[in-house]
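Dissemination and training. As part of the outreach component of the grant, students in the summer workshop were shown how a complex can be specified as a set of sequence lines and then modelled as a single object. The example used during the hands-on session is reproduced here so that future cohorts can follow it. Participants entered these lines:
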Amino acid sequence: DIQMTQSPSSLSASVGDRVTITCRASQSIRSSLNWYQQKPGKAPKVLIFAASSLQGGVPSRFSGSGSGTDFTLTISSLQPEDFATYYCQQCHSAPLTFGGGTRVEAK
Amino acid sequence: EVQLLESGGGLVQPGGSLRLSCAASGFTFNNYAMGWVRQAPGKGLEWVSSISGSGDNTYYTDSVRGRFTISRDNSKNTLYLQMNSLSPEDTAVYYCARGRTTATWQGGDNWGQGTLVTVSS
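and obtained this result:
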């Protein structure tokens, strides 16, 4: 199975900050990576697919990059509605595994 | 508007069974692979199973293979997850999610609100 390791597991940030979350795969997954945002009690929402493609309707302050084993989700200017938990997911091969999540909290 | 509505969750004893349903609307159901993802209380996301748009191809995570069966009725726009031999480790919110392609589920672009399954005596 492909292991997905996210870092950090949590971070504290302020509105307006640039936030970067990383995700590392245990083997190459090319660009087969999704990023999700999840708020408490809600379903996940896809932000980025295929490593760097922005899902329709998602603000442009979200961006994704990387290929192979190392990936990054960047929020260019954190907004109040962005405090949430973020997950990466590889879709290269079954089982489709998720990272452990990164909780973004208010500083 | 894409809508996915799960149902069928509840409290079940260890060793018991449940069938989850996910009613889909707002898109051509058989054009999309579908998946189930679960989240144990306070934990992260775990892919459980997925199925191609035609229903011909199914996939499972190891921990549920042989106990869970995914299926779909394209005439009713409904996805199912039959869960047998349930254990407390299966306690979670179960989400259905639409894939991006017909053939394989490679992540969800639309998700239901989830249904809670609690396995306890």
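The interface with chain A takes residues 35, 37, 44-47, 50, 59, 61-62, 95, 97, 100, 105-109, 111-114 of chain B (CB under 8 Å). Students were then asked to discuss how this feature might be tested experimentally.
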